[in-house]
Amino acid sequence: MEPMGTRTKIGLIALLMVVMLTGCWSRRELETLDFITAVGLDHAAEEGKIQVTVQMAKPFAITGSVQSSVQEKPFHVMTATGYTVFEAVRNLNSISPRRPFWAHARFIVFGEDMARDGLQEALDFFDRDGEPRRTSYILMAQGVKASDLLQAEFSQEPMPSEGISELLQGTRLAQSTVAAMTVNEFLQALEGEGIDPITVRVELIPLEEDFAIGGDVLRDEVKAKTRMTGSAIFKDDRLVAWMNRPQTRGYLWVTGQVRSGIININEPETADAYVSLEIVGSRGSFKPQLTKDGIKILVQVEVHVNIGEMQQYIDIRKDPGLWVSIERRLTQVVKNEIMAAVTKAQLFGADIFGFGAEINRRHPKEWRRLRENWEEEFKRLTVEVEVKARIKRAGLVINRTPIRK
Amino acid sequence: MFLDKISPREATAMLIISRLMMATVLFPTLTELGDPQNIWLVGLCGMIIAVPVILLVVALGLEFPGQTIIQYSQVLLGKFFGKIVGLILVWYWFHIAVTSAAALGGSLTSAIMVETPEIVLIGIIAYLGASAARNGLEVMARVADNALWVVLFFVLVTIILPFDVMKPGHLLPVLADGWAALFPPVTSAVSFFMEFIVVGMLIPHVDRPQGMLRYSAYAILTAGTVLVLLGLAAVMVFGPNVNNLSMPVFSLARMISIGRFFERIEFIPMGAWIMCAGIKLSLFIWAASLGLTQVLGLGQGQVLIYPMGALVVASSLLFYEDFLVLIQFLTRGGWSVYSLGITLTIILLLCAAVLLRRLLRGGANGD
């Protein structure tokens, strides 16, 4: 065969050029970009408009001098309004010297007002545009505007967006008291039949009496913090209720998402003293059963715990009945949490568990009949919970140190 | 005339890559589907139906050793009708090249290079494809043989790495609306496999033509399996949203995030797009040019390749003025009817002619 011809060489070079065209035509130089790390959406003061607030990283402040006692904040917050999200996003350009870049947004937080009225109008941009990702989380700010929440800080973490992401991971892993959805999961729950979205609640804790949002450049003191507890439940795209921590964990038990967490129960032999149990593993699932009396959902949960703390002395070696008793109490707590979640969801007709979707998967024919009136069916259905609880270990001591009187 | 010789494996590589091209870019069969969880059934049915049809084309080619489908259709159907069939096939291949170029250009500009004029992207790819074709089938075949592993690797990465966001529950219920609902998407899947009729042009160039019987089936089964896996991955990741997506495979790669470190790797499917499109364009521009020379009875096919490439670029902008026209054509049944109509009619016509000829000749021998 003849050696590689000029044409082939030119061709290969052209192929390389195609790959590099991103840096040529649709060029984006790093120093002309402003990296958005978090997005907040609210109703604007003006009727019918949407307010988009973004938290952006300031790279030069992140690497700035460490000696000075007052540091420049490594982030700044900007806000713009428009009749659509996209218009507001483009309006940011008129106040930002750098082009906002969306691909690194960790989460999208919605103010309660907007979420109560429905997120339909706000979500398409984040799905359609090429820069935001479906892997960002969706958060709900209780009682405040998202724009305020984005200004709250953490004393240990210079970037608030990073801090909130860590809170989310932390509460999920250590407590299992928040249920978070990414944009991808949220959109699926919106479009999917027989399932409604649920996502995490964040709260703003003002640390000063006259807490006000200013555009402070320097980092003087932390004026407000955020806290992550429980979740927000939706009917279609409208936020209808908040769930507290036990209710949220009830939801997580049913859907098999509990990772760890602490459960307190009363000590078997002594009144007003607690045993703290640390969840070390769990499995949860549910099965719909269509009987002639109506729909029954059988929830099966298996939970393994370690004894984490005992407030009063009891000799747990003495009597295996004590273990059983602790396990029985644990079972009851898990059942209570699940029923609390179910009751709340049924009250608002929000099928956050996806009971309907599961019926569709297992009994598609019956689902055709049920789907028309699913909200009513969901409110009526009965839930039966089976919990298998086991205490696996007891930490470094078996009995706590008794106090001799 | 000097004939480039390629091995059956290289021919298979070209066919597989051509089939994967449209699916990695737009995945029309998937987005057409009302119940996306049935995509694997659609893929399997499409494969199973396509194999015997394409084997017929190969068998026809073996009946006329050394002749392309354009040449033997003139033998079978007579000069006039043979030439008409030839022209239709040339048009069909040309149109495939145009549609593929438009799909690639439209996707690249919507996905990443928003400000880049489409003609630049299409022009470069079409030039690459045409220049490979100008150098002959051997060159194209070798490129395809080597590129196949890269493309398959890219596609497998895209299938496997979003594992953490996959929900197998999205694959149920199976066949909730019965088999009838599968009919349009299955025709779509088959219609894309019908592009393999181009094997009629490849057979005279294959050094072991008999092997093509086996290898063209391999091509369909390999490409089909990859598509089924891609479809399964996309449905498990996006659930009910999957048929809203313009470019499901690209979106799939955007979901990859491993340890918040290994992410933003959408260049992987884009690499696959560009490689697949280059090879697909080269194959179909080559087939259309060679076919046209044979219809018109010209000596050298090579001369027509660059003009054909230029026509592909111009037509891709002319036929599909915007992306929606293309999507409409590909996903609303237009393409299925068009592709199946052309290919099935021609294949059946040629087969009937062969049978008739055998019958007549058999009768003559019997006398």
Descriptive key words:
heterodimer; A: 405 residues; alpha/beta; GMP Synthetase, Chain A, domain 3; 2 domains; 32% helix; B: 367 residues; mainly alpha; Amino acid/polyamine transporter I; two-stranded antiparallel ribbon; globular
Q: How would you portray this structure in words?
A:
The complex is a heterodimer of chains A (405) and B (367). Chain A is of the alpha/beta class and 405 residues long. Chain A contains 13 helices and 16 strands. Chain A has helices spanning 6-20, 59-62, 85-91, 112-117, 120-128, 146-149, 160-174, 183-191, 245-254, 320-348, 355-362, 364-370, 374-380, and strands at 33-43, 50-57, 71-72, 75-82, 99-101, 107-111, 137-141, 181-182, 198-206, 218-219, 224-235, 238-243, 261-266, 274-291, 294-310, 382-393. In chain A, β14 and β15 form a beta hairpin. In chain A, α9 (245-254) crosses α10. Chain A starts with 5 loop residues before the first helix and ends in a 12-residue tail after the last strand. Chain B is built from 14 helices and 2 strands; from the N terminus they run ααααααααααββαααα. Chain B has a two-stranded antiparallel ribbon with strand order 1-2. Chain B is globular. Chain B starts with 7 loop residues before the first helix and ends with a helix. Chains A and B meet through α1, α8 and α11 of A and α5 and α11 of B.
Low-pLDDT stretches of chain A: none
Radius of gyration of chain B: 20 Å
CATH topology of chain B: Amino acid/polyamine transporter I
Give the SSE order of chain A as H and E letters. Answer: HEEHEEHEEHHEHHEHEEEEHEEEHHHHE
Strand content of chain B: under 5%
Q: Look at the structure and give the mean pLDDT of chain A.
A: 86
The number of distinct helices of chain A, counting runs of at least 4 residues, comes to 13
| CATH top level assignment of chain B | Mainly Alpha
Q: Percent of residues of chain B in helical segments?
A: over 70%
Spell the H/E element sequence of chain B. Answer: HHHHHHHHHHEEHHHH
Anisotropy-based shape of chain B: globular
What is the number of beta strands of chain B? 2
Largest sheet of chain B: 2 strands, antiparallel
CATH architecture of chain B: Up-down Bundle
